[in-house]
Amino acid sequence: MRIVSISGTIDSGKTTAIKELITILGAQGKRSAVIVNEDGEETYDDDFISSQQISVEHLRGG
Amino acid sequence: MIVTKELRNVTKMGLRDIQYDIGPFITLIDGPSFSFNWEERPKLLVGQMRDVDRVVIGRSDLIDAKELEHIRETLTPYGIGTQSSPPLSGISASTKFSSCEKNKKKISKALNVAGNNLLLLSNQNSSSINELAQQILSMDQKI
Known about the structure:
Chain A contains 2 helices and 3 strands.
């Protein structure tokens, strides 16, 4: 299992970049899970979660 | 190490021995608002960029060449985007949780992948995110 940390200020494009990475890595046969510490304008919608077969967990107090 | 509720759930599932690799650490910076953020909160940006493996400038298609050069000049003193960029690194670790919720980390090896540590990301050009993904995948191949 590999843990990749992606950080940045709000609306810096973290979720967009993570979704792109998940898509690319998923095409290479890699499964992903996301731990979210902040909710911004871009979200992990249900369609994306089901199509990529990922798990998304939200930390409290982020 | 603080054992959180999520980790307690993992140990309850019987997954007491977890092996994982940590890295890379990536920081995203919004390109169009970089100058404003640098003027308003320089310490925050420096703190976010310190010791990371890659700095990614997002929405780079919305900034002109002059602003991009300004960003490069601002970040160069911090070792970002320099010629001698550090390799993409990570650590491999295993964590065992005892019944007393103490843990022992064993760093087994360091993984290094060469690459530029400043990437430009835009909607029009996905080459940087592809490069980042390939660098992450190549780290796994070195295990």
